[in-house]
Design brief:
This protein is mainly α and 75 residues long. It has four helices and no strands. Helix content is 56%, strand content 0%.
Length: 75
C-alpha cells in the first residue's frame, strides 16, 4: 500500500476525481492497519514514519472534496 500511495502522484490521471477516490481508498486501508506511532518511533526509524508520509501528509496535500461517511471509512 505504501508503494502505491507514494507512486500515485505519478499516475497519468493524477488529480482527477477517480484518482483521488483511489488514493483515499488506499490511505483509508493503510490507516485501518497501521497503529499510531510515538515520537520515539521517529527517532528509532530515523525520520518520519509511514503514517506521517503516507497517511497524514497525503490527507493534508490531497483533501477530500466530499464528506466522509461512516460507510466509506476514513477520518
Amino acid at each position: 500500500m505504501t508503494a502505491a500511495i507514494r507512486s500515485a502522484p505519478d499516475e497519468s490521471d493524477a488529480g482527477s476525481t477517480a484518482w483521488l477516490a483511489r488514493l483515499h481508498a488506499l490511505v483509508d486501508d493503510l490507516d485501518a492497519l497501521e497503529p499510531a506511532f510515538t515520537g520515539y518511533d521517529r527517532l528509532r526509524f530515523g525520520g518520519p514514519t509511514s503514517r506521517d508520509t503516507c497517511i497524514d501528509a497525503v490527507r493534508a496535500r490531497y483533501p477530500r472534496p466530499w464528506p466522509v461517511t461512516a460507510a466509506r471509512g476514513g477520518r
